[in-house]
Amino acid sequence: MDDNNYSVNPLETEEVSGLFIRLAIPTVFAQLVTLIYNIVDRIYIGHIAEYGNLALTSMGICAPIMIMIQAFASLFGGGGAPKASIFLGKKKNRIAQRILGNSFMVMLVVSVVLTIVFRVFSTELLMAFGASEKTLPYALEYMNIYVLGTVFMQISVSLNAFITAQGFNKISMLSVVAGALCNIILDPVFIYGFQMGVKGAALATVISQFVSAICVFMFLIGKKTILRITWQDMINIDRKLLFQCLVLGFSPFVMSITETAIAACFNTSLLKYGGDVAVGAMAICNTAMQLVFIPVQGFGQGAQPIISYNYGADRWDRVTASFRMLFITNVAVVSGIWIIVMLWPDLMVRMFTSDASLIEYAPGMLRIFMSMCFMMGIQSACQRTFLALGNAKASLFLALLRKIILLIPLIYIMPHFFGDKVFAVFFAEPVADTIATITTFTMFIVYYGKKFKWKRSQ
Protein backbone atom coordinates (compact mmCIF):
# COMPACT_ATOMS: atom_id res chain seq x y z
CA MET A 1 0.00 0.00 0.00
CA ASP A 2 1.40 3.36 -1.05
CA ASP A 3 0.92 6.14 1.49
CA ASN A 4 0.32 8.57 -1.33
CA ASN A 5 -2.33 6.38 -2.93
CA TYR A 6 -5.50 7.61 -1.30
CA SER A 7 -8.74 9.28 -2.26
CA VAL A 8 -10.55 12.00 -0.33
CA ASN A 9 -11.82 10.43 2.89
CA PRO A 10 -15.33 11.36 4.08
CA LEU A 11 -14.00 11.31 7.66
CA GLU A 12 -12.23 14.56 6.74
CA THR A 13 -14.78 16.18 4.43
CA GLU A 14 -18.34 15.06 5.18
CA GLU A 15 -20.49 17.26 7.45
CA VAL A 16 -19.83 16.09 11.02
CA SER A 17 -23.37 15.68 12.35
CA GLY A 18 -24.44 13.63 9.33
CA LEU A 19 -21.24 11.61 9.42
CA PHE A 20 -21.68 10.91 13.13
CA ILE A 21 -25.22 9.68 12.58
CA ARG A 22 -24.18 7.56 9.60
CA LEU A 23 -21.35 5.92 11.54
CA ALA A 24 -23.01 5.73 14.95
CA ILE A 25 -26.35 4.23 13.99
CA PRO A 26 -24.93 0.96 12.59
CA THR A 27 -22.58 0.67 15.56
CA VAL A 28 -25.30 1.31 18.13
CA PHE A 29 -27.63 -1.08 16.30
CA ALA A 30 -24.96 -3.77 16.39
CA GLN A 31 -24.40 -3.16 20.11
CA LEU A 32 -28.14 -3.31 20.79
CA VAL A 33 -28.47 -6.56 18.86
CA THR A 34 -25.60 -7.93 20.95
CA LEU A 35 -27.39 -6.79 24.10
CA ILE A 36 -30.62 -8.42 22.92
CA TYR A 37 -28.93 -11.75 22.30
CA ASN A 38 -27.23 -11.55 25.70
CA ILE A 39 -30.60 -10.84 27.29
CA VAL A 40 -32.30 -13.62 25.33
CA ASP A 41 -29.47 -15.95 26.33
CA ARG A 42 -30.09 -15.23 30.01
CA ILE A 43 -33.85 -15.39 29.61
CA TYR A 44 -33.58 -18.91 28.15
CA ILE A 45 -31.13 -19.97 30.84
CA GLY A 46 -33.12 -18.37 33.68
CA HIS A 47 -36.26 -20.25 32.66
CA ILE A 48 -34.71 -23.73 32.41
CA ALA A 49 -37.00 -26.05 34.35
CA GLU A 50 -35.92 -27.10 37.85
CA TYR A 51 -32.60 -25.22 38.00
CA GLY A 52 -33.07 -21.99 36.04
CA ASN A 53 -32.31 -19.69 38.99
CA LEU A 54 -29.05 -21.53 39.75
CA ALA A 55 -28.12 -21.53 36.05
CA LEU A 56 -28.71 -17.76 35.86
CA THR A 57 -26.57 -17.21 38.93
CA SER A 58 -23.83 -19.37 37.39
CA MET A 59 -23.82 -17.04 34.38
CA GLY A 60 -23.01 -14.17 36.71
CA ILE A 61 -20.15 -16.23 38.12
CA CYS A 62 -18.82 -17.00 34.63
CA ALA A 63 -18.98 -13.31 33.70
CA PRO A 64 -15.47 -12.44 35.00
CA ILE A 65 -13.81 -14.96 32.65
CA MET A 66 -15.96 -13.86 29.73
CA ILE A 67 -15.03 -10.25 30.46
CA MET A 68 -11.36 -11.19 30.68
CA ILE A 69 -11.45 -12.67 27.17
CA GLN A 70 -13.11 -9.53 25.83
CA ALA A 71 -10.55 -7.39 27.67
CA PHE A 72 -7.67 -8.85 25.68
CA ALA A 73 -9.61 -8.12 22.50
CA SER A 74 -9.85 -4.51 23.71
CA LEU A 75 -6.10 -4.45 24.26
CA PHE A 76 -5.41 -5.03 20.56
CA GLY A 77 -8.44 -3.45 18.90
CA GLY A 78 -8.93 -0.64 21.40
CA GLY A 79 -5.34 0.51 21.04
CA GLY A 80 -4.53 -0.41 17.46
CA ALA A 81 -7.69 0.93 15.82
CA PRO A 82 -7.50 4.54 17.10
CA LYS A 83 -3.78 4.59 16.30
CA ALA A 84 -4.52 3.34 12.78
CA SER A 85 -7.18 6.07 12.35
CA ILE A 86 -4.67 8.74 13.38
CA PHE A 87 -2.15 7.49 10.80
CA LEU A 88 -4.87 7.40 8.16
CA GLY A 89 -5.56 11.06 8.97
CA LYS A 90 -1.86 11.77 8.48
CA LYS A 91 -2.07 9.97 5.11
CA LYS A 92 0.35 7.29 6.34
CA ASN A 93 -1.75 4.32 5.26
CA ARG A 94 1.16 1.87 5.13
CA ILE A 95 1.88 2.33 8.82
CA ALA A 96 -1.82 1.96 9.63
CA GLN A 97 -1.92 -1.38 7.79
CA ARG A 98 1.19 -2.59 9.62
CA ILE A 99 -0.61 -1.90 12.90
CA LEU A 100 -3.47 -4.17 11.77
CA GLY A 101 -1.14 -7.04 10.83
CA ASN A 102 0.97 -6.81 13.99
CA SER A 103 -2.10 -6.63 16.22
CA PHE A 104 -3.67 -9.64 14.53
CA MET A 105 -0.60 -11.84 14.97
CA VAL A 106 -0.12 -11.06 18.66
CA MET A 107 -3.84 -11.50 19.26
CA LEU A 108 -3.76 -15.03 17.80
CA VAL A 109 -0.92 -16.05 20.10
CA VAL A 110 -2.64 -14.61 23.17
CA SER A 111 -5.91 -16.35 22.26
CA VAL A 112 -4.25 -19.78 22.30
CA VAL A 113 -2.63 -19.08 25.68
CA LEU A 114 -5.91 -17.87 27.19
CA THR A 115 -7.80 -20.94 25.96
CA ILE A 116 -5.30 -23.29 27.62
CA VAL A 117 -5.20 -21.35 30.90
CA PHE A 118 -8.98 -21.11 31.27
CA ARG A 119 -9.54 -24.77 30.50
CA VAL A 120 -6.86 -25.98 32.91
CA PHE A 121 -7.80 -23.70 35.83
CA SER A 122 -11.55 -23.33 35.27
CA THR A 123 -12.61 -24.80 38.63
CA GLU A 124 -10.18 -22.72 40.67
CA LEU A 125 -11.12 -19.53 38.84
CA LEU A 126 -14.87 -20.03 39.19
CA MET A 127 -14.54 -20.73 42.91
CA ALA A 128 -12.51 -17.53 43.26
CA PHE A 129 -15.25 -15.63 41.43
CA GLY A 130 -17.96 -16.64 43.90
CA ALA A 131 -19.18 -20.10 42.85
CA SER A 132 -20.89 -22.16 45.53
CA GLU A 133 -21.35 -25.93 45.69
CA LYS A 134 -24.75 -25.50 44.06
CA THR A 135 -23.70 -23.21 41.19
CA LEU A 136 -20.24 -24.59 40.36
CA PRO A 137 -21.44 -27.57 38.23
CA TYR A 138 -23.52 -25.33 35.96
CA ALA A 139 -20.76 -22.72 35.72
CA LEU A 140 -18.26 -25.41 34.68
CA GLU A 141 -20.62 -26.81 32.05
CA TYR A 142 -20.93 -23.39 30.46
CA MET A 143 -17.35 -22.19 30.80
CA ASN A 144 -15.54 -25.31 29.54
CA ILE A 145 -17.34 -24.94 26.21
CA TYR A 146 -17.35 -21.15 26.04
CA VAL A 147 -13.56 -20.78 26.29
CA LEU A 148 -13.11 -22.93 23.17
CA GLY A 149 -14.37 -19.95 21.20
CA THR A 150 -11.78 -17.55 22.62
CA VAL A 151 -9.99 -17.01 19.31
CA PHE A 152 -13.31 -16.33 17.55
CA MET A 153 -14.29 -13.77 20.19
CA GLN A 154 -10.89 -12.08 19.86
CA ILE A 155 -11.16 -11.84 16.07
CA SER A 156 -14.76 -10.64 16.01
CA VAL A 157 -14.16 -7.93 18.63
CA SER A 158 -10.59 -6.71 18.06
CA LEU A 159 -10.51 -6.81 14.27
CA ASN A 160 -13.99 -5.33 14.03
CA ALA A 161 -12.51 -2.20 15.61
CA PHE A 162 -10.22 -1.84 12.58
CA ILE A 163 -13.23 -1.99 10.27
CA THR A 164 -14.91 0.77 12.26
CA ALA A 165 -11.66 2.77 12.30
CA GLN A 166 -11.85 3.03 8.51
CA GLY A 167 -15.46 4.23 8.57
CA PHE A 168 -17.02 0.94 7.35
CA ASN A 169 -19.51 0.82 10.21
CA LYS A 170 -22.21 -0.95 8.19
CA ILE A 171 -19.86 -3.86 7.56
CA SER A 172 -18.97 -3.90 11.24
CA MET A 173 -22.65 -3.93 12.12
CA LEU A 174 -23.47 -6.79 9.73
CA SER A 175 -20.74 -9.01 11.17
CA VAL A 176 -22.08 -8.48 14.69
CA VAL A 177 -25.70 -8.93 13.68
CA ALA A 178 -24.92 -12.15 11.81
CA GLY A 179 -23.41 -13.70 14.91
CA ALA A 180 -26.15 -12.38 17.20
CA LEU A 181 -28.98 -13.72 15.05
CA CYS A 182 -27.22 -17.06 14.86
CA ASN A 183 -27.05 -17.17 18.66
CA ILE A 184 -30.71 -16.21 19.10
CA ILE A 185 -31.80 -18.97 16.71
CA LEU A 186 -29.52 -21.68 18.11
CA ASP A 187 -30.17 -21.00 21.82
CA PRO A 188 -33.63 -22.61 22.05
CA VAL A 189 -32.59 -25.39 19.67
CA PHE A 190 -29.65 -26.48 21.81
CA ILE A 191 -31.03 -25.61 25.27
CA TYR A 192 -34.52 -27.09 24.86
CA GLY A 193 -34.62 -28.97 21.55
CA PHE A 194 -31.51 -31.06 22.22
CA GLN A 195 -32.02 -30.72 26.00
CA MET A 196 -28.41 -29.59 26.48
CA GLY A 197 -29.28 -26.94 29.06
CA VAL A 198 -26.37 -24.67 29.99
CA LYS A 199 -24.03 -26.56 27.63
CA GLY A 200 -26.36 -25.73 24.75
CA ALA A 201 -26.22 -22.01 25.55
CA ALA A 202 -22.41 -22.12 25.53
CA LEU A 203 -22.27 -24.03 22.24
CA ALA A 204 -24.67 -21.59 20.58
CA THR A 205 -22.45 -18.71 21.70
CA VAL A 206 -19.27 -20.30 20.31
CA ILE A 207 -20.88 -20.96 16.94
CA SER A 208 -22.19 -17.37 16.76
CA GLN A 209 -18.74 -16.01 17.56
CA PHE A 210 -17.30 -18.15 14.77
CA VAL A 211 -19.80 -16.69 12.30
CA SER A 212 -18.90 -13.11 13.30
CA ALA A 213 -15.18 -13.87 13.13
CA ILE A 214 -15.46 -15.25 9.60
CA CYS A 215 -17.37 -12.16 8.45
CA VAL A 216 -14.74 -9.81 9.90
CA PHE A 217 -11.76 -11.76 8.59
CA MET A 218 -13.13 -12.12 5.07
CA PHE A 219 -13.73 -8.38 4.79
CA LEU A 220 -10.22 -7.52 6.00
CA ILE A 221 -8.61 -9.72 3.36
CA GLY A 222 -10.95 -8.52 0.63
CA LYS A 223 -10.82 -5.76 -1.98
CA LYS A 224 -13.09 -3.12 -0.40
CA THR A 225 -11.06 -2.53 2.77
CA ILE A 226 -8.47 0.25 2.99
CA LEU A 227 -6.42 -1.68 5.54
CA ARG A 228 -5.81 -5.31 4.60
CA ILE A 229 -4.47 -8.26 6.58
CA THR A 230 -1.32 -9.57 4.89
CA TRP A 231 1.12 -12.26 5.93
CA GLN A 232 3.99 -9.82 5.53
CA ASP A 233 2.50 -7.38 8.06
CA MET A 234 1.75 -10.23 10.45
CA ILE A 235 5.26 -11.69 10.63
CA ASN A 236 7.25 -8.43 10.41
CA ILE A 237 6.62 -7.16 13.92
CA ASP A 238 7.46 -3.49 14.47
CA ARG A 239 8.11 -3.60 18.23
CA LYS A 240 8.13 0.16 18.72
CA LEU A 241 4.87 0.65 16.83
CA LEU A 242 3.23 -2.33 18.51
CA PHE A 243 4.29 -1.05 21.92
CA GLN A 244 2.67 2.33 21.22
CA CYS A 245 -0.58 0.59 20.29
CA LEU A 246 -0.51 -1.64 23.36
CA VAL A 247 0.11 1.33 25.64
CA LEU A 248 -2.93 3.09 24.17
CA GLY A 249 -4.92 -0.16 24.28
CA PHE A 250 -4.02 -0.71 27.91
CA SER A 251 -6.74 1.75 28.93
CA PRO A 252 -9.69 -0.14 27.37
CA PHE A 253 -7.97 -3.36 28.48
CA VAL A 254 -7.92 -2.16 32.09
CA MET A 255 -11.51 -0.94 31.76
CA SER A 256 -12.54 -4.43 30.69
CA ILE A 257 -10.19 -6.56 32.78
CA THR A 258 -11.12 -4.76 35.96
CA GLU A 259 -14.71 -5.86 35.37
CA THR A 260 -13.40 -9.33 36.19
CA ALA A 261 -12.03 -8.19 39.53
CA ILE A 262 -15.16 -6.16 40.23
CA ALA A 263 -17.48 -9.07 39.41
CA ALA A 264 -15.41 -11.30 41.71
CA CYS A 265 -15.52 -8.72 44.51
CA PHE A 266 -19.25 -8.17 44.14
CA ASN A 267 -20.04 -11.88 43.95
CA THR A 268 -17.89 -12.96 46.90
CA SER A 269 -19.13 -10.10 49.10
CA LEU A 270 -22.77 -10.68 48.22
CA LEU A 271 -22.41 -14.44 48.68
CA LYS A 272 -21.11 -13.70 52.19
CA TYR A 273 -23.82 -11.22 53.17
CA GLY A 274 -26.84 -12.33 51.13
CA GLY A 275 -26.26 -15.78 49.65
CA ASP A 276 -27.06 -17.01 46.14
CA VAL A 277 -30.14 -14.78 45.80
CA ALA A 278 -27.99 -11.65 46.23
CA VAL A 279 -25.50 -12.94 43.64
CA GLY A 280 -28.40 -13.63 41.29
CA ALA A 281 -29.68 -10.07 41.80
CA MET A 282 -26.23 -8.75 40.89
CA ALA A 283 -26.27 -10.81 37.67
CA ILE A 284 -29.52 -9.04 36.75
CA CYS A 285 -28.09 -5.63 37.73
CA ASN A 286 -25.03 -6.15 35.57
CA THR A 287 -27.20 -7.05 32.60
CA ALA A 288 -29.37 -3.98 33.19
CA MET A 289 -26.26 -1.80 33.34
CA GLN A 290 -25.45 -3.03 29.84
CA LEU A 291 -28.50 -1.04 28.73
CA VAL A 292 -26.41 2.01 29.60
CA PHE A 293 -23.00 0.90 28.42
CA ILE A 294 -24.03 -0.69 25.12
CA PRO A 295 -25.45 2.51 23.54
CA VAL A 296 -22.66 4.76 24.79
CA GLN A 297 -20.07 2.27 23.56
CA GLY A 298 -21.80 2.29 20.19
CA PHE A 299 -21.86 6.08 20.00
CA GLY A 300 -18.23 6.19 21.13
CA GLN A 301 -17.18 3.72 18.46
CA GLY A 302 -19.06 5.77 15.88
CA ALA A 303 -17.34 9.00 16.94
CA GLN A 304 -13.85 7.54 17.44
CA PRO A 305 -12.75 7.29 13.78
CA ILE A 306 -13.98 10.85 13.12
CA ILE A 307 -12.11 12.23 16.14
CA SER A 308 -8.94 10.20 15.56
CA TYR A 309 -8.74 10.84 11.82
CA ASN A 310 -9.26 14.59 12.15
CA TYR A 311 -6.85 14.78 15.07
CA GLY A 312 -4.25 13.22 12.76
CA ALA A 313 -5.24 15.73 10.05
CA ASP A 314 -5.04 18.62 12.61
CA ARG A 315 -8.71 19.55 12.07
CA TRP A 316 -9.68 20.61 15.58
CA ASP A 317 -12.92 22.18 14.42
CA ARG A 318 -14.13 18.74 13.34
CA VAL A 319 -12.74 17.09 16.47
CA THR A 320 -14.74 19.54 18.60
CA ALA A 321 -17.92 19.06 16.57
CA SER A 322 -17.60 15.26 16.89
CA PHE A 323 -17.11 15.44 20.64
CA ARG A 324 -20.11 17.76 20.98
CA MET A 325 -22.33 15.29 19.14
CA LEU A 326 -21.03 12.38 21.23
CA PHE A 327 -21.52 14.25 24.51
CA ILE A 328 -25.10 15.39 23.82
CA THR A 329 -26.20 12.02 22.45
CA ASN A 330 -24.69 10.09 25.36
CA VAL A 331 -26.30 12.28 28.01
CA ALA A 332 -29.73 12.15 26.36
CA VAL A 333 -29.81 8.37 25.83
CA VAL A 334 -28.36 7.42 29.23
CA SER A 335 -30.79 9.74 31.04
CA GLY A 336 -33.71 8.14 29.21
CA ILE A 337 -32.62 4.62 30.14
CA TRP A 338 -32.08 5.68 33.75
CA ILE A 339 -35.64 7.03 34.01
CA ILE A 340 -37.10 3.79 32.64
CA VAL A 341 -35.11 1.57 35.02
CA MET A 342 -35.92 3.74 38.04
CA LEU A 343 -39.66 3.71 37.29
CA TRP A 344 -40.10 0.07 36.27
CA PRO A 345 -37.27 -2.09 37.74
CA ASP A 346 -39.59 -5.05 38.25
CA LEU A 347 -40.09 -5.41 34.48
CA MET A 348 -36.34 -5.81 34.01
CA VAL A 349 -36.16 -8.46 36.74
CA ARG A 350 -39.10 -10.49 35.44
CA MET A 351 -37.45 -10.76 32.02
CA PHE A 352 -34.66 -12.88 33.47
CA THR A 353 -36.30 -15.02 36.09
CA SER A 354 -39.56 -16.53 37.28
CA ASP A 355 -38.07 -17.28 40.70
CA ALA A 356 -40.29 -15.65 43.36
CA SER A 357 -37.43 -14.80 45.69
CA LEU A 358 -35.49 -12.96 43.00
CA ILE A 359 -38.61 -11.14 41.73
CA GLU A 360 -39.24 -9.82 45.23
CA TYR A 361 -35.60 -9.05 46.07
CA ALA A 362 -33.90 -7.76 42.92
CA PRO A 363 -35.93 -4.62 41.95
CA GLY A 364 -34.88 -2.70 45.06
CA MET A 365 -31.25 -3.63 44.56
CA LEU A 366 -31.46 -2.62 40.89
CA ARG A 367 -32.69 0.88 41.84
CA ILE A 368 -29.80 1.30 44.27
CA PHE A 369 -27.18 -0.04 41.87
CA MET A 370 -28.21 2.23 38.97
CA SER A 371 -29.25 5.30 40.97
CA MET A 372 -26.44 7.51 39.59
CA CYS A 373 -25.86 5.89 36.22
CA PHE A 374 -27.38 8.92 34.43
CA MET A 375 -23.96 10.56 34.90
CA MET A 376 -22.18 7.89 32.89
CA GLY A 377 -23.01 9.56 29.58
CA ILE A 378 -20.66 12.42 30.51
CA GLN A 379 -17.93 10.12 31.78
CA SER A 380 -18.04 7.85 28.74
CA ALA A 381 -17.93 10.70 26.19
CA CYS A 382 -14.88 12.31 27.80
CA GLN A 383 -13.00 9.07 28.36
CA ARG A 384 -13.65 7.82 24.81
CA THR A 385 -12.32 11.12 23.46
CA PHE A 386 -9.14 10.83 25.52
CA LEU A 387 -8.64 7.43 23.89
CA ALA A 388 -9.47 8.66 20.38
CA LEU A 389 -6.90 11.45 20.73
CA GLY A 390 -4.21 8.94 21.67
CA ASN A 391 -3.89 10.25 25.24
CA ALA A 392 -2.86 6.97 26.83
CA LYS A 393 -1.88 8.35 30.25
CA ALA A 394 -5.13 10.18 30.98
CA SER A 395 -7.24 7.37 29.57
CA LEU A 396 -5.42 4.77 31.67
CA PHE A 397 -5.73 6.80 34.87
CA LEU A 398 -9.47 7.25 34.36
CA ALA A 399 -9.88 3.54 33.65
CA LEU A 400 -8.12 2.77 36.93
CA LEU A 401 -9.93 5.48 38.88
CA ARG A 402 -13.53 4.33 38.68
CA LYS A 403 -12.94 0.64 39.16
CA ILE A 404 -9.64 -0.05 40.91
CA ILE A 405 -9.13 3.11 42.97
CA LEU A 406 -12.79 3.69 43.84
CA LEU A 407 -15.22 0.81 43.29
CA ILE A 408 -13.28 -2.20 44.58
CA PRO A 409 -12.27 -0.56 47.89
CA LEU A 410 -15.82 0.79 48.32
CA ILE A 411 -17.29 -2.72 47.99
CA TYR A 412 -15.41 -3.67 51.16
CA ILE A 413 -15.51 -0.31 52.97
CA MET A 414 -19.21 0.55 52.63
CA PRO A 415 -20.55 -2.44 54.66
CA HIS A 416 -18.75 -1.02 57.71
CA PHE A 417 -20.98 2.07 57.61
CA PHE A 418 -24.40 0.47 57.04
CA GLY A 419 -26.40 -2.03 59.01
CA ASP A 420 -27.75 -3.56 55.80
CA LYS A 421 -24.54 -5.05 54.38
CA VAL A 422 -26.08 -6.10 51.07
CA PHE A 423 -27.43 -2.58 50.51
CA ALA A 424 -23.97 -1.21 51.24
CA VAL A 425 -22.33 -3.44 48.62
CA PHE A 426 -24.82 -2.40 45.93
CA PHE A 427 -24.50 1.27 46.97
CA ALA A 428 -20.76 1.22 46.22
CA GLU A 429 -21.56 1.47 42.48
CA PRO A 430 -23.38 4.86 42.49
CA VAL A 431 -20.78 6.39 44.82
CA ALA A 432 -17.97 5.37 42.43
CA ASP A 433 -19.97 6.57 39.40
CA THR A 434 -20.40 10.04 40.89
CA ILE A 435 -16.77 10.61 41.87
CA ALA A 436 -15.42 9.19 38.60
CA THR A 437 -17.68 11.36 36.43
CA ILE A 438 -16.77 14.58 38.23
CA THR A 439 -13.05 13.76 38.01
CA THR A 440 -13.20 12.78 34.32
CA PHE A 441 -15.03 15.91 33.23
CA THR A 442 -12.67 18.13 35.23
CA MET A 443 -9.61 16.49 33.67
CA PHE A 444 -11.08 16.85 30.20
CA ILE A 445 -11.55 20.59 30.62
CA VAL A 446 -8.01 20.94 32.00
CA TYR A 447 -6.46 19.00 29.10
CA TYR A 448 -8.54 20.28 26.19
CA GLY A 449 -10.48 23.33 27.41
CA LYS A 450 -8.27 25.69 25.40
CA LYS A 451 -7.57 23.37 22.46
CA PHE A 452 -11.19 22.65 21.56
CA LYS A 453 -13.08 25.15 19.43
CA TRP A 454 -16.18 25.29 21.63
CA LYS A 455 -17.99 27.96 19.61
CA ARG A 456 -19.73 26.78 16.47
CA SER A 457 -18.10 28.04 13.29
CA GLN A 458 -20.22 30.51 11.33
Characteristic terms for this protein:
458 residues; mainly alpha
The count of helical stretches stands at: 17
Helix and strand run: HHHHHHHHHHHHHHHHH
In this structure, how is the largest beta sheet organized? none
Q: Evaluate the radius of gyration.
A: 21 Å
What's the total count of β strands? 0
**End-to-end distance, in Å?**
38 Å
Describe the 3D structure.
The protein is an all-alpha fold. Helix content is 82%, strand content 0%. The model has no long low-confidence stretch (mean pLDDT 84).
Summarize the structure.
The protein is mainly alpha-helical and 458 residues long.
Map the helices and strands.
Blueprint: H1 10-13, H2 16-46, H3 52-89, H4 93-120, H5 122-128, H6 136-146, H7 150-165, H8 169-193, H9 198-220, H10 231-235, H11 239-312, H12 316-343, H13 345-352, H14 356-369, H15 376-388, H16 392-413, H17 421-448
Helix pairs in contact: 2-3, 2-8, 2-11, 3-4, 3-6, 3-7, 3-11, 4-7, 5-6, 6-9, 7-8, 7-9, 8-9, 11-12, 11-14, 11-15, 11-16, 11-17, 12-15, 13-14, 14-17, 15-16, 15-17, 16-17
